[in-house]
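Good morning,

Both structures are done.
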Amino acid sequence: MASTTLRGAAPARAGLAPQNGVLRSSSKPCAGMMLKTVRKVGLPSLRVRASVASSPQKQTPIVKSGDEVRIAVLGASGYTGAEIVRLLANHPQFHIKVMTADRKAGEQFGSVFPHLITQDLPNLVAVKDADFSDVDAVFCCLPHGTTQEIIKGLPRQLKIVDLSADFRLRDINEYAEWYGHSHRAPELQEEAVYGLTEVLRDEIRNARLVANPGCYPTSIQLPLVPLIKAKLIKLNNIIIDAKSGVTGAGRGAKEANLYTEIAEGIHAYGVTSHRHVPEIEQGLSDAAESKVTISFTPNLICMKRGMQSTINVEMASGVTANDLYEHLKSTYEGEEFVKLLHGSNVPHTRHVVGSNYCFMNVFEDRIPGRAKIISVIDNLVKGASGQAVQNLNLMMGLPENMGLQYQPLFP
């Protein structure tokens, strides 16, 4: 089977002189880019799942089956960057050409993450030395607050999925309030699309820059947005208790994350002030078409990965917990990665480890008129890198589940 490689239309080295990559093959134009034919072995067949949460739209595919999409991973030495690499090892069309990690520049990726030593990858370079002339799309896995200026300097033809919080909040004044500094790329914020895939699929398809959601907001909005849109729950008195594995805090050395600080215990943090609060409220308010305020308490728990959100809601008059369940089941019936468990089965984080799934279930509370919704994800996959791959698949016109059909790892 012949495959093709996307060619960027403009030279692209961030802040440096452009350098053009070369492949020996014939070129042909496609959708404003140049495609170069290379040989690739047969690819697995994949099916596209239609969304029932966001209405489908016709789109001319940017990439055809067999086209190679050349990827840059910025911030590859962090947990989300490493998870991108792990997921792309199973992706038939996304291939990594550039990897950056300023503190690890010059090192082989396999020496930073030995579990991925089998992958044929470029050496790590500093962001300032990255050559984007041979790149079609970027996963930006850099720390919050560092991404805006870097993305502002990237070539305009690149498709970008940003895993930081830098473009999630539409209101740049609200961003400044919660993140402690003014927005450094307000013009880009205007074009950024929030990447909650199952809810905003149509907008993501046509986006150039996608702000990948946070882990807590993903686990919370997936169950709540459909219920709020259907007016099945009241908007006041939404109480959320959420728990995250330690990888949610990133790979940087922090005293609070030392083994002796977190072992054999659980502790709340960011009480009334967690930065995911405005992101969650933004999505819920959009669904309600009015301001929604939540009570949210995040907790750090002594495990490597995983996230559970327990959401307490007050139901609208005449609505039962079974009504909530049936509506969520109907909403996500055609979805690949969001599943309602059967009967009284309780979602556990161990059910989704290593996968792009979100499992949830609804339970009637002992307090009349109230219900509990439990939602679990792997914070590094559906809560970060997996959803990022899902979004870039959409942006490139590829099947949404491509490279993401990993089953959960259990036991």
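Second structure follows.
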Amino acid sequence: MTQSVVVQVGQCGNQVGCRFWDLALREHAAVNKKGIYDEALSSFFRNVDTRSGGDGPDIYKGKICSLKARALLIDMEEGVVNEILQGPLRDVFDSKQLITDVSGSGNNWAVGHKLYGYQYRENIVEKLRKAVEHCDCLQCFFIIHSMGGGTGSGLGTFVLNLLEDEFPEVYRFVTSVYPSGEDDVITSPYNSVLAMKELNEHADCVLPIENESLFDIVNKIHQMINSGKLGSTVKQNSMVTSSAGSAKTVQEKPFDAMNNIVANLLLHLTSSARFEGSLNMDLNEISMNLVPFPRLHYLVSSLTPLYTLADVNVPSRRLDQMFSDAFSRDHQLIQADPKHSLYLACALLVRGNVQVSDLRRNIERLKPSLHFVSWNQEGWKTGLCSVPPVGHSHSLLALANNTCVKPTFIELKDRFMKLYKKKAHLHHYLHIDGMEQSCFSEAISSLSDLIEEYNELDAAKGGPRTDPSRLKIAV
């Protein structure tokens, strides 16, 4: 069994990470009734003997003693990390997994990347190596961060570069939360575009997520519950719509419901690595099969059914409807419509009691309505995990390498240019050592090149589809 290490950076990254660890523990508790430390748990947790005090030796078999997350928590403000350490998850982390400061990055990518990055480089590398030493077969790093702030975007992408330098053979999956157009951080377009250049160059896969889409999904869930269509009872200890049911009852924070959707995405993505299935999909297979060109590694994700997220007591949605929903714009985690754009490849990760024949039937049913690039008409990757989400019979995560991400990038570029044409707020960045105006021009050039690559693919979509010529055989 392989292991993964989660690096959560900045306020958003740590809040999402907190929800991920909470949901992961609940999921394993539902499956692992005997409290035995098994391979499934080992993928994200160490079992540590803490009886002698401190960070004792790892225990590889037998009863669970003390679970420690394979994680590194980084934030240049102490608030969120301190909350985690005082909350129900406090025993899952120890001080050797934390890197904090007190002053924050002030919504400035340059402060996070150039200032704190170099200041904390050795400390970050040392703690990463410690986490890696506890893994038998490290497969993947997950970075969770936001693009709009200073620490998440700046220090988050600095850590991404470090991972490539120090562990070049280990896959780097990045979950990036993009700001909405009405974001309250005025400099978020600068931070996002500067971070995008680093993601283009150093990530293996990026799962872009937009705050606006998360907000819409949360509203849909509440509407479904309140309308009575799905029944009005939400299960006790609801996994995703609230944080109630944790070890301590805490007031639900404003972003908990949105963060839980991202956490649920990561739970689903890693389910095959943690549990058995008739058609398991390794994390490295996602990158291998879904990323045909190095820079085009942005995967649009959709989760279905939505009420799996809400933990509403209702009969299961029809299986075929679940597959249809995965390709509708209402279920995407960015503001996009993949059905009317071009697919380079698509992965379907199904959890629960679903057969391979169900998968094949639905792919054949949906194929005529989806536009796949001419050289990859059979660009499907499928995975079946036999363990469903807690309290549900089945669910589906679709990951699409699709040109529908382009409008998100174009809007980001437009918002960047509005500020950059006026040179507004540039002085806040340029007074940081190592930060020059060329950083901005290179970043916008990198984003423009990425958009152009998607444009070229879209231009080919409209052309006539021709079958490749066949070898003529003389008779």
